[in-house]
């Protein structure tokens, strides 16, 4: 069972990158936060590697930050769509620190269980039917 959960986390992360240029549709709360969990862990690892290698610019962590910017915006837009909000809310990220805090609440809210103007809900936006419902590719794309 644990293997299935890990597969779901990694599947959500890979699917987030595959959908970098998709700003339409929805992404569930679970897929969104799984993506961010893996992304955070990888970012911390790269920061640690950057601190161990003596060079004036933290190359790896900067590459991760700027290289993933469009993916972060894209998955954020689709997460806002899941709760019926416009992707333009992502412009709050322009505001240092407070913009991320403003977006934290809408990104954490449960998605609309019914279809909305942005598409049909993903299967995992409703109540969990047990612990053995790992995410597959179909759950992280709509």
N-end to C-end Cα span: 25 Å
Number of helices: 5
State the order of secondary-structure elements, H for helix, E for strand.
HHHHH
The mean pLDDT is 84
Give the radius of gyration: 16 Å
Helix content: 40-55%
Sheet-strand content, in percent, reads: under 5%
Number of domain modules: 1
Structural class: mainly alpha
The total beta strand count reads: 0
Shape: globular
Largest sheet: none
Poorly predicted runs: 125-138
Descriptive keywords:
142 residues; mainly alpha
How are the SSEs ordered, and which strands pair?
Layout: H1 2-18, H2 29-52, H3 59-67, H4 69-82, H5 98-108
Short summary of the structure?
The chain is mainly alpha-helical.
Question: What can you see in these coordinates?
Answer:
The chain has one domain (2-140). The protein is an all-alpha fold and 142 residues long. It has helices spanning 2-18, 29-52, 59-67, 69-82, 98-108.
């Amino acid at each position: 069972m644990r293997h299935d959960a890990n597969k779901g986390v990694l599947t959500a992360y890979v699917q987030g990158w595959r959908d970098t240029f998709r700003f339409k549709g929805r992404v569930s709360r679970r897929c969104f936060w799984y993506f961010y969990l893996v992304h955070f862990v990888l970012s911390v690892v790269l920061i640690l590697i950057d601190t161990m290698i003596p060079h004036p610019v933290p190359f790896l962590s900067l590459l991760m930050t700027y290289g993933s910017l469009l993916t972060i915006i894209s998955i954020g837009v689709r997460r806002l769509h899941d709760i019926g909000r416009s992707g333009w809310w992502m412009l709050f990220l322009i505001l240092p620190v407070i913009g991320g805090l403003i977006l934290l609440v809408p990104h954490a809210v449960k998605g609309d269980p019914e279809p909305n103007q942005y598409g049909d809900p993903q299967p995992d936006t409703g109540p969990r039917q047990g612990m053995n419902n790992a995410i597959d590719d179909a759950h992280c794309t709509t």
